[in-house]
Design brief:
By secondary structure, this protein is an alpha/beta fold. The chain has helices at about 5-15, 40-55, 65-75, 95-100, 105-115, 130-140, 170-175, 195-220, and strands spanning about 60-65, 80-90, 115-120, 125-130, 155-160, 180-185. It has two domains: about 5-30 and about 40-90 and about 145-220, Rossmann fold (3-Layer(aba) Sandwich); about 95-140, no CATH class. The protein is built from eight helices and six strands. The strands form two sheets. Strands 1-2-5-6 form a four-stranded parallel β-sheet, with helices on both faces. It has a two-stranded antiparallel ribbon with strand order 3-4. β5, α7 (about 170-175) and β6 form a beta-alpha-beta unit. α2 packs across α3.
């Protein structure tokens, strides 16, 4: 909730007189709970709870990395209220594609026999504890490899220097979506965070475009 992208978008929405909602998933940031107890299903329910309890008007979802995956799941589940989606280095199916399939034999064995393994990460000096439950649960929510039927405008941003989520993820989503109102924007030299000043400006312009697109559609 306190990240550069969130604060930038919050400021932008306040300036434009728009509503804004941000939250940390359970086990993340300021929220209670332990990360290792989380699953995609649990964080998906966190997202639906936020939408159902706090959003009474049409909403445009913005999600970064795992948040991009969850934003897609929410949009599919709540089509009556979600009117646009902005994904930032979206990482659908990452629990399988970027974790399980890339784990060493030792890590896979630890997951199977002990139910968890620890992976190194730049975001946590102690590493992340990845559970067997997280990997197995993620397979229930796979998006890649099948048609994604969302009749809303979608914009996907991705940095060319993203070392965590390959650019091919955004290209795959581009191909899988049925809507023709979808575009991928590559940001030169951008990393996974996309939190530089120039990244934030592009992010803000992209959100404003989605808002204008919704308003035009509403008028029609």
């Amino acid at each position: 909730m306190n990240g550069d992208k969130v604060l930038y978008l919050e400021s932008l929405c306040k300036k434009e007189g728009l509503g804004f909602l941000a939250f940390d998933y359970s086990g993340h940031g300021n929220s209670s709970g332990k990360f290792e107890e989380g699953t995609i299903s649990r964080w998906f329910l966190d997202s639906l709870d936020m939408i159902d309890h706090f959003v009474k008007t049409p909403v445009i979802l913005v999600g970064s990395s795992m948040g991009g995956w969850l934003a897609h799941l929410v949009a599919l589940q709540r089509p009556q209220i979600v009117k646009g989606l902005l994904g930032i280095a979206s990482a659908p199916d990452f629990t399988d594609e970027l974790m399980w399939k890339r784990f060493s034999y030792k890590q896979q064995t630890e997951l199977i026999n002990k139910g968890k393994t620890v992976i190194a990460t730049e975001y946590n000096l102690k590493g992340w504890t990845i559970t067997k439950k997280l990997i197995e649960d993620g397979r229930k929510h796979r998006l890649l490899g099948k048609t994604i039927k969302l009749n809303i405008p979608i914009r996907l941003l991705h940095g060319t220097k993203d070392a965590n989520v390959p650019i091919t993820y955004s290209y795959q989503l581009l191909d899988l979506h049925t809507t023709s109102n979808i575009a991928v924007t590559l940001i030169k030299s951008g990393d996974h965070r996309l939190s530089r000043k120039e990244d934030l400006i592009i992010l803000g312009h992209t959100l404003q475009e989605l808002i204008e697109t919704y308003l035009l559609t509403k008028e029609e």
